[in-house]
Design brief:
The chain is mainly α and 67 residues long. It has 3 helices and no strands. The chain is elongated.
């Protein structure tokens, strides 16, 4: 997931992607807590995806309010 692809999506799709990423993050946390094997790099990947989504959503909101 990169920012160029995200900027092409509308706000509704971005919010759905953000919800999916947060669910994935929660799932990873639960897997780690129960002792299941989790790849450590997945935590960073999901956290960065969430940050990217929030950034693009904020950009879109600022652009819409600036009109």
């Amino acid at each position: 997931m990169n920012a160029k692809e995200l900027r092409a999506k509308n706000s509704r799709d971005l919010n759905q992607d953000l919800l999916k990423a947060r669910r994935e993050q929660f799932s990873l946390l639960m897997q780690r807590a129960t002792g299941q094997a989790v790849k450590p790099h997945d935590f960073g990947r999901v956290r960065k995806d969430i940050a990217r989504l929030k950034t693009v959503l904020a950009e879109k909101a600022a652009k819409e309010s600036g009109k």
